[in-house]
Design a protein that fits this description.
The chain is α+β, with helices and mostly antiparallel strands. The protein has a domain at 115-143 and 171-279: Alpha-Beta Plaits (2-Layer Sandwich). Helices cover 57% and strands 7% of the residues. The protein contains 27 helices and 13 strands. It has helices spanning 2-5, 22-32, 52-74, 91-135, 163-168, 185-196, 232-244, 256-312, 335-349, 377-386, 397-411, 415-430, 435-438, 442-449, 451-468, 506-511, 543-576, 580-611, 623-632, 645-677, 696-702, 704-709, 718-723, 728-752, 755-779, 783-825, 851-854, and strands spanning 10-18, 36-37, 173-181, 200-206, 211-212, 219-220, 222-230, 248-250, 316-317, 323-331, 356-360, 684-685, 688-689. Strand 9 and strand 10 form a beta hairpin.
């Protein structure tokens, strides 16, 4: 509890690391996660530090490993992840590991490059075969070409695409054939027509099956085209247009024999390429499988090695350049473990001179360390989101473990909804070691990280639901109601009592839609319900009025207790930091101001509950009126709650009025008196009088323990005056602002706690509306079709309950509970201006590896 109540005591230590053992010592420190390093080379650029070469080597190794992981993922080879984290590699193995990875990279790149070339050639040959098959039907050709010439040959019966016909015209006919992307066909045809001015004939047909693009690897639909043109200039333009549209051009055979010969050669080459490609892929997969076995340990080792050199760059060298000096923050409880880590590192390196450490005094504020476990971590994160606690101040997380889920449950009080939330959180807790939950997406990860918060919120909601007697907006009669309806009938009482009491008879029951139970009638109210609200209130028409009064007063009581507790915790801060004058001049006036006004309001609420019964409830004065009269001093006398009320209230107002100037001026005037009227070393201490500030005798009188702690235990307030330049105006203004904020905040914060009542009312009404609109309709349907209708109604009811009442209302109550803790509770004592202790620990490095992490 000590660590969670207040951050751990820290000290500044200086590490003296021999140059040959520094790497091994930091490796041992990284495995234990004991210290936070300070950068002693802040003025030195990152590229001018001592170990920049080693950092570049680590980055090169990370680049190679990123390439390996990328290739392994491409091959769909599973990446094994070890359960244990391997240690950082020894310096002797770093060069060997670098050489192995570089050779593996070169081999993989060469094999991958050859594979891609083979695959590209194969795809091109397949495209060529498809082109030959489709273009075979485009142009009619003579088996043997024999040139014949006629002066005026008849053209009516000859095809324009007949090669012999073109030859007879004396024109030089050319062909361009290939494949084009389906989406470019129309634009390609228009471009040919415009540029070539109609001196081309384009014939194209769609392939039956999509093919993979050799350049991009994308599977798309292709069109085979054949362009017939006349003249070399037209042919040159056609080829340029084909290049612009990224067409795949292949040679077109002139004769049928040439086509057949090319087809046979293509088939043979395709078979050979398939064989070579399969063997290449098998070899590449073997290499990747072997690399995948060790890639996890290599990635972790390189990350650890890089982290070690990053920390070494924060160290400074002594004048001989043989020893590294590091300054670290370390918890005082871990100093012995730190010494053992240095000894282990020196032993592993085989050094004759061990590394060592010593603590040094400092005036700097240490970082804040609060040790947490998986249960308390979520609550500590809620506090840290407001601000990391200042060094050694009271940590609100210890109390937030109880107050946060309780205030949430006050707004979310429903037995059924709380039990569902509890079961969901319990399921997460029982399966917290499941790997899929640890690797879940962002939203599910938030639920998983806050599983213990959800567990307590659900458990407390079950408790407050039993107090409210709400289960899905319905009351549960467990112990039997304390109200007896039959006692209201006139037949249950003697004739003499009929005139004194308003009783029921058959006529009253028949002619009145609303009947009122009178608790003053004997036998009607038999005693309070054993636990929570009596279930009969669920049938009452004035149920909302009764619950509003109850929840509103409960909210005020809980809020004032919560804020008063926060002011009280501030006293522990003043005691710890040896500022007792703040207790008398700040904390006690704050408590008096709070309790004399709002504490008295709680007293009146509880007093009225205890003193006035059902018989005297009609003459009970209004608490609101009495509280207002406390400040207005009415001329006419009021009934009052108790005798002497007016004198008590005037006394409380007098105390409140006196506490305000003390709160405004007490602390600044006291510090001014210390600064002007007394010298800090003029205070008598243990029989000695300290005369001069810089005297060595004064230091000896302070005691060796005080020197080791780095501060002297002088009279309260002296250190604050001497350590900082005294500025009375600034101190006065700060105290006035704080006092005004506190006095006004007591009113506004108390009103802010009424959100407990408002959200509890909203949750209950939403639950009631959901039940009335769905379940009540489904349950009232005729039995013939009721079962068929009830199933979808129940399913719809469950869906709306989960998304509206559990998720949306739960999130709303969660945010309001956070606000009550941050604004109304923590600002009474919590500064939250510290820096978090971030140790040099390998456990903080990412345990999973992806391309994004390594790139």
């Amino acid at each position: 509890m000590g660590s969670l109540f207040r951050s751990e005591s820290m000290c500044l230590a200086q590490l003296f690391l021999q140059a040959g053992t520094a790497y091994e010592c930091l490796s041992a420190l990284g495995e234990r996660g004991l210290v936070q390093f300070r950068d002693l080379n802040q003025s030195v650029s990152s590229f001018q530090r001592k170990f920049v070469g080693e950092m570049k080597r680590c980055e090169e190794l990370e680049r190679i490993l990123a390439y390996l992981v990328q290739e392994i993922n491409k091959a769909d080879i599973p990446l094994p992840e070890g359960e244990t984290s391997p240690p950082a590699p020894p310096l002797k193995q770093v060069l060997e590991m670098q050489e192995q990875l570089q050779k593996l990279e070169v081999e993989l790149r060469e094999v991958t490059k050859n594979k891609e070339k083979l695959r590209k050639n194969l795809l091109e040959l397949i495209e060529y075969t498809h082109m030959l098959r489709v273009t075979k039907t485009f142009v009619k050709r003579n088996v043997e070409f024999e040139p014949t010439y006629e002066e005026f040959p008849p053209l009516e019966n000859d095809s324009l695409l007949d090669y012999s016909c073109m030859q007879r015209l004396g024109a030089k006919l050319g062909f361009v054939s290939g494949l084009i992307n389906q989406g470019k066909v129309e634009a390609f045809e228009k471009m040919l027509w415009r540029v070539c001015k109609g001196y081309t004939i384009v014939t194209y047909a769609e392939l039956d099956e999509p093919l993979e693009d050799p350049e991009t690897g994308e599977v798309i639909k292709w069109y085979v085209f054949l362009i017939s043109f006349w003249g070399e200039q037209i042919g040159y333009k056609v080829k340029k247009i084909c290049d612009c549209y990224h067409c795949h051009i292949y040679p077109y055979p002139n004769t049928a024999e040439e086509r057949k010969e090319i087809q046979e050669g293509l088939n043979t080459r395709i078979q050979d390429l398939y064989t070579v490609l399969h063997k290449t892929e098998d070899y590449l997969r073997q290499v990747l499988c072997k690399a995948a076995e060790s890639v996890y340990s290599r990635v972790i080792q390189v990350r650890k090695m890089k982290a070690i050199y990053h920390m070494l760059n924060m160290c400074s060298f002594d004048v001989t350049n043989k020893c590294l000096i590091a300054e670290v923050w370390c918890p005082e409880a871990d100093l012995q473990e730190l010494r053992r880590a240095l000894e282990d590192g020196s032993r592993e390196s085989g050094a004759t001179i061990p590394s060592f450490m010593n603590t040094i005094p400092t005036k700097e504020t240490p970082p804040t360390l609060i040790r947490t476990n998986k249960f308390t971590e979520g609550f500590q994160n809620i506090v840290d989101a407001y601000g990391v606690g200042s060094y050694r101040e009271v940590n609100p997380a210890l109390f937030t473990i109880i107050t946060f889920p309780f205030l949430f449950a006050v707004m979310f009080g429903d037995f059924g909804h709380g039990f569902v939330m509890f079961l969901f959180a319990l399921l997460l807790v029982l399966n917290e070691n499941h790997p899929r939950l640890n690797q879940s997406q962002e939203i599910m990860r938030m639920f998983f990280d806050g599983r213990y918060i959800l567990l307590l919120m659900g458990l407390f909601s079950v408790y407050t639901g039993l107090i409210y007697n709400d289960c899905f907006s319905k009351s549960v009669n467990i112990f039997g109601s304390g109200w007896n309806v039959s006692a209201m009938y006139s037949s249950s009482h003697a004739t003499k009592e009929h005139k004194k009491m308003v009783l029921w008879n058959d006529s009253v029951v028949r002619h009145n839609k609303v009947l009122q139970l009178d608790p003053s009638v004997p036998g009607v109210f038999q005693g309070p319900y054993p636990f929570g609200i009596d279930p009969i209130w669920n049938l009452a028409t004035n149920r909302l009025t009764f619950l509003n009064s109850f929840k509103m007063k409960m909210s005020v009581i809980l809020g004032i207790i919560h804020m008063t507790f926060g002011v009280t915790l501030g006293i522990f801060n003043h005691l710890h930091f040896r500022k007792k004058f703040n207790i008398y001049l700040v904390s006690i006036p704050e408590l008096l101001f709070m309790l004399c006004i709002f504490g008295y309001l709680i007293f009146m609420i509880v007093y009225k509950w205890l003193v006035y019964s059902a018989e005297t409830s009609r003459v009970a004065p209004s608490i609101l009126i009495e509280f207002i009269n406390m400040f207005l001093f009415p001329a006419s006398e009021t009934i009052g709650l108790y005798p002497g009320q007016e004198h008590v209230q005037r006394l409380l107002l007098a105390v409140t009025a006196l506490s305000v100037p003390v709160l405004f001026l007490g602390r600044p005037l006291f510090l001014l008196w210390l600064h002007n009227g007394r010298s800090c070393f003029g205070v008598s201490r243990s029989g000695y009088t300290l005369v001069r500030k810089d005297s060595e005798e004064e230091v000896s009188l302070l005691g060796s323990q005080d020197i080791e702690e780095g501060h002297n235990q002088m009279e309260d307030g002296c250190r604050e005056v001497t350590n900082e330049e005294f500025n009375f105006g600034e101190i006065l203004m700060t105290q006035v602002i704080h006092s005004i904020e506190y006095c006004l905040g007591c009113i506004s914060n108390t009103a802010s706690y009424l959100r407990l009542w408002a959200l509890s009312l909203a949750h209950a009404q939403l639950s009631d509306v959901l039940w009335a609109m769905l379940m009540r309709v489904g349950l009232r349907v005729d039995t013939t079709y009721g079962v068929l209708l009830l199933l979808p109604v129940i399913a719809f009811f469950v869906i709306l309950t989960v998304f509206i009442l559990l998720i949306m209302e739960g999130l709303s109550a969660f945010l309001h509970a956070i606000r009550l803790h941050w604004v109304e509770f923590q600002n009474k004592f919590y500064t939250g201006a510290g820096t978090k202790f971030v140790p040099f620990s390998f456990s903080l490095l990412p345990s999973k590896f992806h391309n994004n992490d390594l790139a």
